[in-house]
Write a structure and sequence with these properties.
By secondary structure, the protein is α/β, with parallel strands linked by helices. The chain has a domain of 197 residues: 3-Layer(aba) Sandwich (Rossmann fold). Helix 4 links the parallel strand 5 and strand 6. Helix 2 runs parallel beside helix 3. The longest helix is centred in the first third of the chain and has 19 residues. It is globular and about 50 Å long.
């Protein structure tokens, strides 16, 4: 039995789709933990066991992890609480349930940066790495999918790219760093969940095929979209003010700012790519398959979707 948390999210829905196709051949049953079962895809109806609730809730994970052999763990973003509460606090009930129900293997979505000088002051990344340590202490075999920023984050800027030809971030325009497609995270997770011959605690870097700077992203988007796209660097103070203006938790906002600062200082850089295996979607491919249709859609159609 494989349990999938956050099955309607950006990574989880792709993982669920992969496992729906592959699990029967491996003799695996699937169970999902979801707040709103109506958001599950039609293909999953009747083919997965559904536990309704939050996977941060002790009673919910008690039900969800009973009889489970493996769990896909992803903490949903919650900018209304402190980073420790958002990551480790949310995860503590699951850690207790892992031990209580003898869950053997856990695959979790985490971040790059462990072992770097910036890791202790990297805000949300620091909180994510602390969550990994918490899970590792549960006695399970654990693989943390150490990931950089996602291509898919650019979908939050579709309107700006469509209307003004501009996207923003806080890093230097010429700083290259790894980036990855959410679909590649899902595919890596699926492989680990279906072939559980691994043991112990380790991280798996999922980096994407090449390091890219914001200038590189702008150039590739210009080519793939057939219209000029430019990068506009935002200061950390501007980012902080914008986030606080949306009413986010102040400690969470500072953790976001600290993470962005650490990334600009090279948090994600210097990772050895030689052992990389599995899928590696290029940014150009992602633009053609995902970003371009979103940019070309009318605003009304995008809102409806």
């Amino acid at each position: 039995m494989i349990v999938i948390t956050a099955p309607t999210g950006n990574i989880g829905r792709r993982l669920l789709s992969l496992l729906l196709r592959a699990a029967p051949a491996h003799g695996e049953e699937l169970r999902v933990v979801v707040r709103d079962p109506t958001r599950l895809p039609e293909a999953a109806r009747g083919r997965v066991e559904v536990v309704t609730g939050s996977h941060g809730d002790a009673a919910t994970v008690e039900r969800a992890f009973t009889g489970a052999d493996a769990v896909f763990w992803l903490v949903p973003p919650d900018a209304s609480v402190t980073p420790d509460d958002a990551y480790s606090g949310f995860t503590r009930p699951a850690v207790q349930a892992f031990a209580a129900h003898g869950v053997g293997h856990v695959v979790g979505v985490s971040a790059l940066g462990r072992g770097t000088p910036q890791a202790a002051r990297a805000g949300l990344v620091t909180a994510s790495l602390a969550m990994d340590d918490l899970i590792a202490g549960a006695g399970v075999a654990y693989r943390a999918l150490a990931s950089p920023s996602f291509f898919d984050n650019l979908l939050e800027e579709v309107d700006s790219i469509r209307d003004d030809g501009v996207f923003t971030d806080t890093v230097a325009a010429d700083r290259p760093a790894p980036m990855v497609a959410a679909a590649d995270i899902a595919a890596t997770a699926a492989g680990l969940l279906l072939d559980r011959s691994w043991s112990g605690v380790d991280s798996v870097s999922v980096l994407g095929p090449q390091d890219l700077s914001p200038n590189d992203l702008a150039r590739i988007m210009t080519q793939e979209l057939g219209r000029p796209v430019h990068y506009q660097r935002q200061s950390l103070d501007e980012l902080r003010s914008a986030l606080l203006g949306h009413g986010l938790n102040e400690a969470f906002v500072e953790a976001m700012v600290d993470m962005k600062r650490a990334k600009d200082q090279g948090l994600d850089s210097g990772i050895d790519r030689s052992p990389q295996t599995g899928p590696a979607t290029t940014f150009a491919q992602w633009c053609a398959q995902t970003l371009k249709p979103a940019v070309l859609a009318t605003p009304e159609a995008a809102d409806a979707h």
